[in-house]
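Cross-check.
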Amino acid sequence: MRLSYNAPVVLSLTFLALGIFVITHTIAPFLQGWFITYPIFNLVNPIDYFRLFSHILGHQNIEHFVGNFTFILLLGPILEEKYGSQRLLVFILTTAFITGVLNAVFFNTGLLGASGIVFLFILLASFTTFKSGEIPLTFIFVFVIFIGQEVYSALGNDNVSQFAHILGGMIGSVFGFKVNKT
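Predicted model, tokenized:
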């Protein structure tokens, strides 16, 4: 038996985020700011453009990291097999960019973590058995349960960006319908 790098995008994302977590929480905490999208966006600062994508790699603590990557490692390989590595990477980067931009425009807090990607994956996973002309009942239940919970949680004040969760789920839904319509 040999090890297989069976889901290159998912595994690379995981190893990259793990490496960044270790570095920013041990030897170089001053780099943590590179992995947060801040509410003030400086159009002439190239690092701010980098942060629009890199915020999905930064995590507040080990619980935050483990919570996100448990779902990513569980759902990601299935999604990568169904949609392909290149398409899944586009889904991830699009979600990171949209959540980063909209957070900078509409909110006065920073954004970090891969939870938008988790919700992208959760909603996208409900389309794995999609047939043209149908709406999977599992999609409806997943949407109502996960997005409904986030809307409810948004009424509280817990330092969690339910906005990124909801937006990630919405993007997963759009990609799921768009990619699977044929």
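The first helix runs from residue 8 to 25. The chain has a mean pLDDT of 90. Passed to J.P. for a second look.
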